[in-house]
Amino acid sequence: MVPQDARIFVAGHRGLVGSAIVRRLESAGYTNLQVATREQLDLRDQAAVNYWFRDHRPEYVYLVAGTVGGILANSTRPAEFLYDNLMIHGTVVEAARQIGTTKLLYLGSSCIYPREAPQPMTEEALLTSPLEPTNEPYAIAKIAGIKLCSAYRRQYGCNFISAMPTNLYGPGDNFDLDSSHVLPALMRKFHEAKLSGQSDVTIWGTGSPRREFLHVDDLADACVFLMDHYDGEQHVNVGTGVDVTIKELAEMVGQVVHPNSRLVFDTTKPDGSPRKLLDVNKLAGIGWTASTGLADGIRSTYEWFLAQHSVRS
Ligand code: GFB
Q1: Residue nearest to atom 20 of ligand 1 (CA)
Q2: Which has the least CB within 10 A, 24, 50, 169, 262?
Q3: What is the pLDDT of residues 46-76, one digit of tens each?
Q4: Atom 31 (ligand 1): residue with closest C-alpha?
Q5: Does the CB atom of residue 246 touch ligand 1 within 6 A?
Q6: From CA 83, how far away is CA 290, in angstroms rounded?
Q7: The ligand 1 atom nearest the CA atom of 273
Q8: Alpha-carbon distance 101 to 59, whole Å?
Q9: Domains of the chain by start residue, with CATH
Q10: How far is CA 231 from CA 1, 22, 95, 283, in A?
Q11: Cα separation of 289 and 147, whole Å?
Q12: Does residue 138 have an active-site annotation?
């Protein structure tokens, strides 16, 4: 178990995942959290990261920083998704090794699995066939991160573990329509349609792809759990084990945000992977399962969105 006063670095604490991990650690009573803003520390800069680690000597590291985004951002900014993530993972893992960090948890993504992987996807599906083209650069960076942690375990004996979450959502998400994932994008689209008195809401693609959505507070809980209870080399899937079509998701968000709306499908936009459902049996076997249902999670995230934007309707 991680001692309550251990020095714990959350890399990426301003992001969706990092902010949830900080909330979770604080509520669990951890007293010595370490964070650094992008302005204070460029995680792509090995010399700067080495200096920061020598100065702060974190004993535990949550490596959850990265350049992330939805299907459009992935296809329009592939160089950033590949370069930033490769560098961030490389610098932090190496600096943690150099100062003798006790344990590091690296966060990947379910897009590491092949486009045609059998569903639900087990951890063994990694690198068995080609990736989904719309997010291949990001997936390759994430796969490199997993392999980096494995390699550091084997060569240096570092206790570096990897968790692979499914599609995430929740408070702190990105609601920018050009770079966001589907759930926050739909929430904003329905919200703006309601405010402007429109009934039509445009959904990208055919609505038929299936996705699994995990509330970020559940993910944070799983990460803290794995830090305490998992020391294996193989990455661990983190999801709910349940998926919905994008059309069903849109209907659920519409029900909460703008019940009298009508869905319009823009099939000039890409669908991406036909399905991405994680097999979560490994994590269940270690002792953790998700607890937030999608309908409840959508409702509470919309409450957060309204509070943030101070727009009540
Ligand atoms: O969430 P999303 O952008 O990412 O899109 P992926 C999921 C599905 O929702 C796709 C559809 O089929 C989109 O076409 N969709 C419908 C929309 N309307 C919208 C909309 O307004 N905005 C967005 N963004 N999508 C990402 C990867 O894939 O998943 C990342 O690109 C990462 O690398 C992330 O792995 C978890 O699930 O397709």
Answers
A1: 182
A2: 262
A3: 999 999 999 999 999 999 999 999 999 999 9
A4: 71
A5: yes
A6: 32
A7: 38
A8: 5
A9: 8-172+213-241+276-292 (3.40.50.720)
A10: 11, 22, 20, 12
A11: 25
A12: yes
